[in-house]
């Protein structure tokens, strides 16, 4: 009776990578939500700190989160913690013995690791710390190579690399449960991918987007601005069947100029399908099509489990849609290539939200990047839709005056006739109109910088 | 192009009311082996317009013994799911075109990729 009670009050320590800080909490929350569990941090939770203590979870929950997370490095069953080694000792001696003994048996093997955040420790000091834990009732034998149980002493020396304290701010001790999926960042690096473009999404962020979208096995995922398929690669990795569209014929067919430095033209095996084949997920490939996202080709009742995309910002890839400002009196003949006109940024997003409201399953998520001109940004600019609830908004700075925000929305209501026009009267529709000028503002920032430097060199030469 | 995708596509030519399903005129069809995943097939069946799937498979000469109506309790009927899996994911149109049933407008398919772009005078 006592054993089950104490196991259900277990705390888990998640050690997170100190990278993409804003994106971590939405990722962990989304992955816990896939397990139907809430995010319940212990008291003194600090979001920017690399160590989070969570409650109300089972070991299976933690393993499931770690099987998907690229933000989390490792997870531990927390046995003790404190601000000093003395406090840690007290905490560990208070930890129920029946929770320790299954992992300390005489016939088992173990090792203890020492990890220090924001400080390098000499080997001798590591050994000292391990030896200082001799008050713990370890009965098994130490095996450095392949221990059955791994324990970890973790010391947090704060987040200021220019001001490293002599003693840690906080110390934790726990039993290692699982590592996260950060290896995917290396194994799926765009550098080694068969088929890339100028704006292919980096692996880490692709997987973060997949997690924010709560993609799960056997889902049907769609990317309306698919480009070279980076987001489809990530989603297929986690068991989703994927499809996408793009207005650019050459990109979809894998033709045209290469984005690689020493390669002029794309090779025969360079296309989205080949990318999935490279990572062993070709069976998740459904289709890609040449299509204009502003003119969807799906029947009204076609629905996806998730829509994940990186629309063009009009900087390195142009924003286009079919259409012409000219008066069309003569019909086009067969060999005619469709003329495109500029697809205004605010239209891209209102179309995307409207499309998602109609073509997501209830509870399905839309995850997309919103380019932002920082000096004028305010939260009211994030596009809204009556059928979609805003879940998260994470900023990635691109330059001093630009950034992009990863927006996650969840479908909570089915659209009725009124809703597709409702946004026109919504005051939030207009603030982003100004962002049609994102391209101009982006380049004006650069021009100002160049003008300043020109003036400087002119002054110097005088 | 796979038939799962085709089942969800519709003609978006301006003014067209009955643009679904698109007719398939294939000049090259391939049947690949794709790993059978009964859970995925079961999940997709409710999303399908069954008669359009049967019609498309028929157009390609790949219907085999796919029934005209959905079988009840298909989730546990592995034999049936395998038939559906084959037409949804293994049959692919490599070359040909999709035709709007109302306007007759053709959308080419080349190297397995449909081109759904309309010309400026059609939008």
Automatic annotation (TrEMBL), chain A:
Pfam families on file: Tmrp11_N, UPF0020
UniProt keyword Transferase, yes or no: yes
Subcellular location: Cytoplasm
GO MF, any single term: tRNA binding
GO biological process: methylation; tRNA processing
Keywords: Cytoplasm, Methyltransferase, RNA-binding, S-adenosyl-L-methionine, Transferase, tRNA processing, tRNA-binding
Major site of localization recorded for this protein: cytoplasm
Keyword presence, RNA-binding: yes
Catalytic reaction(s) noted: guanosine(10) in tRNA + S-adenosyl-L-methionine = N(2)-methylguanosine(10) in tRNA + S-adenosyl-L-homocysteine + H(+)
E.C. designation(s): 2.1.1.214
EC category name: transferase
Classification via InterPro entries: DNA_methylase_N6_adenine_CS, RlmKL-like_Mtase, SAM-dependent_MTases_sf, TRMT11, TRMT11_N
Domain tRNA (guanine(10)-N(2))-methyltransferase TRMT11 N-terminal: 11-182
GO CC field: cytoplasm; tRNA methyltransferase complex
Homology family: Belongs to the class I-like SAM-binding methyltransferase superfamily. TRM11 methyltransferase family.
Protein role: Catalytic subunit of the TRMT11-TRM112 methyltransferase complex, that specifically mediates the S-adenosyl-L-methionine-dependent N(2)-methylation of guanosine nucleotide at position 10 (m2G10) in tRNAs. This is one of the major tRNA (guanine-N(2))-methyltransferases.
Quaternary structure annotation from Swiss-Prot or TrEMBL: Part of the heterodimeric TRMT11-TRM112 methyltransferase complex; this complex forms an active tRNA methyltransferase, where TRMT112 acts as an activator of the catalytic subunit TRMT11.
Official protein name in the record: tRNA (guanine(10)-N(2))-methyltransferase TRMT11
Gene: trmt11
From TrEMBL, chain B:
Gene3D superfamilies: 2.20.25.10
Location of the protein in the cell: Cytoplasm, Perinuclear region; Nucleus, Nucleoplasm
InterPro entries for the chain: Trm112 (IPR039127), Trm112-like (IPR005651)
Pfam families the record matches: Trm112p
Chief subcellular location: cytoplasm
Family membership noted in the UniProt record: Belongs to the TRM112 family.
Protein name: Multifunctional methyltransferase subunit TRM112-like protein
The species this protein was found in: Sphaeramia orbicularis
Gene: trmt112
């Amino acid at each position: 009776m006592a054993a089950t009670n104490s196991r259900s009050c277990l705390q888990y320590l998640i050690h997170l990578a100190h990278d993409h800080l804003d994106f971590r909490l939405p990722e962990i929350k989304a992955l816990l939500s896939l397990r139907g569990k809430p995010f319940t941090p212990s008291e003194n939770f600090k979001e920017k700190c690399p160590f989070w203590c969570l409650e109300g979870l089972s070991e299976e929950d933690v393993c499931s989160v770690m099987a998907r997370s690229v933000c989390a490095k490792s997870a531990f069953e927390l046995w003790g913690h404190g601000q000093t080694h003395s406090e840690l000792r007290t905490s560990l001696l208070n930890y129920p013995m029946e929770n320790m003994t299954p992992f300390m048996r005489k016939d088992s093997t173990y090792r203890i690791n020492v990890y220090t955040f924001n400080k390098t420790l000499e080997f001798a000091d590591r050994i000292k710390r391990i030896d200082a834990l001799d008050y713990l009732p370890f009965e098994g034998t130490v095996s450095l190579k392949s221990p059955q149980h791994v324990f970890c002493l973790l010391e947090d020396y704060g987040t200021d690399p220019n001001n490293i304290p002599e003693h840690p701010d906080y110390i934790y001790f726990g039993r290692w449960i699982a590592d996260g999926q950060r290896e995917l960042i290396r194994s799926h690096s765009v550098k080694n991918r068969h088929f890339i473009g100028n704006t292919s999404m980096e692996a880490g962020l692709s997987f973060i987007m997949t997690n924010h979208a709560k993609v799960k096995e056997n889902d049907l995922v769609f990317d309306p601005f698919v480009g070279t398929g980076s987001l489809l690669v990530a989603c297929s990795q986690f068991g989703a069947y994927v499809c996408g569209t793009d207005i650019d014929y050459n990109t979809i067919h894998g033709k045209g100029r290469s984005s690689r430095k020493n390669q002029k033209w794309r090779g025969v095996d360079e296309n989205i399908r080949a990318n999935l084949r490279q990572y062993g997920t070709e069976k998740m490939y459904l289709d890609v099509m040449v299509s204009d996202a502003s003119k969807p080709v799906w029947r009204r009742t076609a629905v996806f489990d998730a829509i994940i995309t990186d629309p063009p910002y009009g900087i390195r890839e142009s924003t286009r849609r079919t259409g012409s400002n000219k008066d069309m009196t003569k019909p086009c003949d067969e060999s005619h290539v469709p003329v495109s006109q500029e697809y205004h940024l605010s239209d891209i997003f209102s179309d995307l939200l409207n499309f998602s409201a109609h073509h997501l399953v209830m509870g399905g998520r839309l995850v997309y990047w919103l380019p932002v001109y920082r000096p004028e940004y305010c939260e009211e600019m994030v596009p809204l839709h009556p059928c979609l609830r805003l879940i998260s908004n994470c900023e990635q700075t691109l330059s001093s005056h630009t950034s992009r925000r990863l927006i996650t929305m969840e479908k909570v209501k089915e659209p009725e006739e009124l809703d597709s026009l409702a946004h026109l009267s919504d005051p939030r529709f207009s603030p982003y109109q100004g962002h049609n000028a994102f391209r101009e503002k982006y380049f004006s920032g650069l021009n100002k910088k160049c003008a300043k430097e020109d003036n400087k060199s002119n002054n110097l030469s005088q | 192009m796979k038939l799962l995708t085709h089942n969800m596509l519709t003609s978006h030519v301006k003014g067209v009311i009955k643009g679904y399903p698109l007719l398939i005129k294939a000049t090259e069809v391939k049947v690949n082996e794709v790993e059978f995943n009964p859970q995925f097939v079961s999940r997709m069946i409710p999303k399908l317009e069954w008669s359009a799937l049967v019609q498309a498979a028929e157009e390609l000469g790949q219907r085999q013994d796919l029934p005209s109506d959905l079988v009840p309790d298909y989730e546990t009927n592995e034999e049936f799911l395998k038939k559906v899996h084959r037409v949804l994911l293994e049959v692919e149109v490599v070359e040909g075109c999709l035709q709007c049933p109302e306007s007759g407008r053709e959308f080419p398919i080349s190297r397995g990729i449909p081109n759904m772009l309309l010309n400026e005078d059609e939008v």
